Amino acid sequence: MLLQLAIIGILIALLPLSYVFVRGSRDKYRKLVWITAFLTLDLIMFGSFTRLTDSGLGCPDWPGCYGHSNPHAAMEPIAAAQTALPSGPVTHVKAWIEMIHRYFAMGVGVLIIALMVLAWVKRKELRQSPWYATGVLVLVCVQGAFGAFTVTMKLQPVIVVTHLMLAMGLLASLIWLGSRNEAPHAVAPRAAGLRWPGIVALTLLVIQIFLGGWVSTNYAVLACTDFPLCNGQLIPEMDFRHGFTLWRQLGMTADGNYIPHSALVAIHWVHRGFAFVVLGYLAWFALRARRLEGLTRHARWLLAVLALQLATGLSNIVFDWPLIAAVAHNGGAALLLILLLRLNYNIGLATRTAGAAAQPSVAARAT
């Protein structure tokens, strides 16, 4: 079974690898980084689709499905589980969704292995340490381990959220690596003044992504069924203690009782309230950044994706959590992360340029 799964992962990775290595371009490493980053974004969105369709336990073992490499070979145990619990987490459709997600993840893993090998082989030509690409491989291995824990620990919320945050961290690492391998371009020197605002914006977004993942994994999206109020109240009854207890089973409190609705309301309300803080700050940051050379394009995209996030977030409440809007909301969070990383990287270029320019001036004054 493990050999079959490995072959599937290699076959999935062959198409993007062929595109990179068969074409005559000399810049293979950079292209492989960006293709892997793009597929990682797709994987994050398909992961959200897997979670939102309640397919996370479509195959309740790991890495295969009832000891097989594909759900077709496991038709009998899947049918038995579906017959015993027709509304349960195991169905033929959910099993395929879960396994396609795993196949896709293995393909991305193969691409990152190829990326690391290429970084070591071409380390002199690339003129950068191959240890960064090696670190990305370590990160994807840790991510895979938490993917296994997600199944074996029956969708325990803190494990699922950690799996999500590691996926976002993997995407961020690939975006940063891709940015480092691009040709430097002009950035307005004044952009250096946005260094700390950019770091704050990125920090706020990471917190909000965690809160959004906590809402999703606890199925608290519809805990508040109206907007701008929450169940007809500005400040509803909320149970923060049970809502934000990290180590507990899905749908349960740490004491083993069913989680109260007020705890789900607390989870939803905190995410909703903090969203306005993040939305306001990121909009202010983007408006400042769009006036500066080298930041304009990414800043405009940031404003556009912020509008998309607001629309999809509200539609989840108003239209009772439509699947396409929920997946788009998860993808929008990843896009915001990409754009903020690109902006922070370019601001870093301006900061380094300003520092290099200041050194001759200091030396001249000393002379």
UniProtKB/TrEMBL annotation:
<feature type="transmembrane region" description="Helical">
    <location>
        <begin position="323"/>
        <end position="343"/>
    </location>
</feature>
<keyword id="KW-0350">Heme biosynthesis</keyword>
<feature type="transmembrane region" description="Helical">
    <location>
        <begin position="6"/>
        <end position="22"/>
    </location>
</feature>
<keyword id="KW-0479">Metal-binding</keyword>
<feature type="transmembrane region" description="Helical">
    <location>
        <begin position="299"/>
        <end position="317"/>
    </location>
</feature>
<feature type="transmembrane region" description="Helical">
    <location>
        <begin position="269"/>
        <end position="287"/>
    </location>
</feature>
<feature type="transmembrane region" description="Helical">
    <location>
        <begin position="34"/>
        <end position="52"/>
    </location>
</feature>
<keyword id="KW-0560">Oxidoreductase</keyword>
<keyword id="KW-0812">Transmembrane</keyword>
<dbReference type="GO" id="GO:0016491">
    <property type="term" value="F:oxidoreductase activity"/>
</dbReference>
<comment type="pathway">
    <text>Porphyrin-containing compound metabolism.</text>
</comment>
<dbReference type="InterPro" id="IPR003780">
    <property type="entry name" value="COX15/CtaA_fam"/>
</dbReference>
<keyword id="KW-0408">Iron</keyword>
<feature type="transmembrane region" description="Helical">
    <location>
        <begin position="103"/>
        <end position="121"/>
    </location>
</feature>
<keyword id="KW-1015">Disulfide bond</keyword>
<feature type="transmembrane region" description="Helical">
    <location>
        <begin position="133"/>
        <end position="152"/>
    </location>
</feature>
<keyword id="KW-0472">Membrane</keyword>
<feature type="transmembrane region" description="Helical">
    <location>
        <begin position="198"/>
        <end position="217"/>
    </location>
</feature>
<keyword id="KW-1133">Transmembrane helix</keyword>
<dbReference type="Pfam" id="PF02628">
    <property type="entry name" value="COX15-CtaA"/>
</dbReference>
<dbReference type="InterPro" id="IPR050450">
    <property type="entry name" value="COX15/CtaA_HemeA_synthase"/>
</dbReference>
<feature type="transmembrane region" description="Helical">
    <location>
        <begin position="158"/>
        <end position="177"/>
    </location>
</feature>
<protein>
    <submittedName>
        <fullName>Heme A synthase</fullName>
        <ecNumber>1.3.-.-</ecNumber>
    </submittedName>
</protein>
<keyword id="KW-1003">Cell membrane</keyword>
